[in-house]
Design brief:
single chain; mainly alpha; Fumarase C, Chain B, domain 1; Fumarase C, Chain A, domain 2; 2 domains; 3-stranded antiparallel sheet; two-stranded parallel sheet; 18 helices; 6% strand
């Protein structure tokens, strides 16, 4: 993917993620019909203004102040006041990756031509993306309706040369950087401040990134389960094709298929003393499969929001209507993110239980306690993965704690005008945190599974010929980052490197599916 073209046609999650990761370049279409459609919106608004039409957020105040009329000579100042008084965000700043996703998501919505903004405004967002000038956006302050007002005020302000931006891994005052790069700041026209801010771009951008990470996580958790099953000398026939044909959830069947491919059921290592493995191995397709089955409808909700006009009012320049509604409401994203964080935290819990089995000599089928690779008298002072298991338990507990739905905490705000809100942005933030914690669990369980499997190989309890090519390849790739653990050592940098590889999708995993 080299260019992502914004022309009012639908974009995908992958388009947004490619732009967020700087794997593609944003480009506004130069098609004359597209540009003409964009220009119709502000032209229609100007016509209404000249005819003394009342337009919410143009000739009136905002929200509960919609009954306040704005004197004609102050109308042009109103957009600046909107982004100025919303400059009260708090908390951590969104990463540059998420900031790019926000720019791309807002540009996608505005490019539909129903927001009444000028072509020059779209070009300014395109410039920010192309030159990688990213607004510093605080992550706290949005209730998810009227959209992401406070965080998006930072985008509006940056377009006008105010506040701060990331550029080449440094933070700059926007005015200073735009002057250095010879970029003219905008002066927003009536409706443009509202068009930028009164929408769901921040939560939707987060949702696109979260979906991409979760999609990979389902595959990675399957590969880790295969490693753990081999290390436990588990019963590979728990993933039998006929068995899964009688419970035909396609995502669950796909996970079982991938496990069969990884585990080479024609010649598996086998622990004949235990007919049925514990649930964290035997039921892994039933846990990971729920996430795999949810991905299609999660994609539908996220991409529908991505490709929607979600500000208020909607400007129908062709029919010459100003349509007042509530498209800024982030309910679909809130539900998607509340659901996804639940699914992801269950993956953390699954892998946490797999790791707990592997390190415990009561349950790991003859492996040394804590998977220590030390021998002789040095076993007494080496503790292997004891602390790693404690850390995984902590990360899993925090992930599970965050699964309480954010959407149930709707608050009445803004003089009871915004009396039912989505909390979609908080749900999306929670989901990203749960993903981070679960990726950390994945890294630790991947390390442990490879340690356990290598112990089996060194003790000749498994023959190399019994391992599939993909499991051998995964073991070798992990060993490039974290060597076999003979003596206790600090593992934090190695775990962090594994997390980075996971987040960069460094390992190609599966392609085929049942569905």
């Amino acid at each position: 993917m080299k260019n992502v073209v914004f022309n009012g046609t639908p974009l995908t999650i992958e388009h947004i993620v490619a732009l967020a990761k700087k794997n593609a370049t944003a480009q506004l279409s130069n098609d004359t019909a597209f540009k003409a459609k964009i220009d119709q919106g502000p032209a229609f608004l100007q016509k209404l203004l000249e005819e003394d039409g009342d337009i919410y957020g143009v000739t009136t105040g905002y929200g509960d102040s919609c009954t306040t009329s704005i004197p004609d000579h102050l109308v042009n100042e109103l957009p600046k006041h909107l982004y100025t008084f919303h400059g009260c965000g708090s908390g951590q700043k969104l990463t540059a990756e998420l900031g790019r996703a926000v720019l791309a998501t807002r540009l996608a919505s505005l490019s539909l031509g129903y927001s009444g903004v000028r072509w020059v405004l779209l070009k300014q967002i395109e410039t920010l993306l192309q030159k990688d000038i990213i607004p510093l956006i605080p992550e706290e302050g949005s209730v998810g309706a009227s959209g992401d007002l406070t965080p998006l005020s930072y985008l509006a302000a940056v377009l006008c040369g105010e506040r701060q931006v990331y550029y080449q891994d440094r933070v700059y005052p926007t005015s200073e950087l735009l002057n250095t790069l010879n970029i003219s700041p905008l002066a927003l026209k009536p409706k443009e401040g509202l068009a930028i801010m009164n929408g769901t771009a921040v939560m939707t951008a987060m949702a696109c990134v979260a979906f991409s990470r979760a999609e990979y996580l389902a595959q990675l958790a399957t590969r880790i389960t295969a490693l753990a099953c081999a290390a436990h000398l588990g019963n590979t026939y728990h993933f039998d094709r006929t068995l899964f044909e009688v419970k035909p959830h396609p995502g669950q069947q796909t996970i079982a298929l991938w496990l069969r491919q990884d585990l080479r059921v024609d010649n598996p290592p086998r622990n004949s003393d235990r007919l049925q493995d514990r649930y964290s191995l035997r039921c892994a397709p039933h846990v990971i499969g729920v996430l795999q089955d949810a991905l299609p409808w999660l994609r539908q909700s996220i991409e529908n929001e991505l490709n929607s006009a979600n500000d208020n009012p909607i400007i129908d320049a062709i029919g010459e209507h100003v349509l007042h509604g509530g498209h800024f409401y982030g309910g679909h994203i809130a539900f998607a993110m509340d659901s996804l964080k639940n699914l992801v935290a269950n993956i953390a819990d699954l892998l946490d239980r797999q790791l707990a089995q592997m390190v415990d000599p009561k349950f790991n089928n003859g492996l040394p306690a804590n998977l220590s690779g030390s021998k002789g008298e040095r076993r007494a002072i080496n503790h292997g993965l004891k602390a790693v298991q404690i850390a995984v338990s902590a990360w899993t507990a925090e992930a599970l704690k965050l699964t309480l739905p954010a959407s149930i905490f709707s608050r009445s705000t803004e003089c009871h005008n915004q009396d039912k809100v989505s909390m979609g942005t908080i749900a999306a933030r929670d989901c990203l945190r749960v993903l981070q914690l679960t990726e950390q669990v994945c890294a630790a369980t991947l390390l442990a599974s490879c340690q356990a499997l290598e112990l089996r190989l060194r003790r000749e309890e498994i023959q190399q010929s019994q391992l599939s090519t993909v499991l051998t390849h995964t073991l070798n790739e992990v060993r490039k980052i974290t060597p076999f653990l003979n003596e206790d050592r600090a593992l934090d940098t190695e775990l962090e490197a594994l997390v980075n590889h996971i987040q960069q999708r460094a390992w190609s995993l599966y392609t085929g599916t049942i569905a």
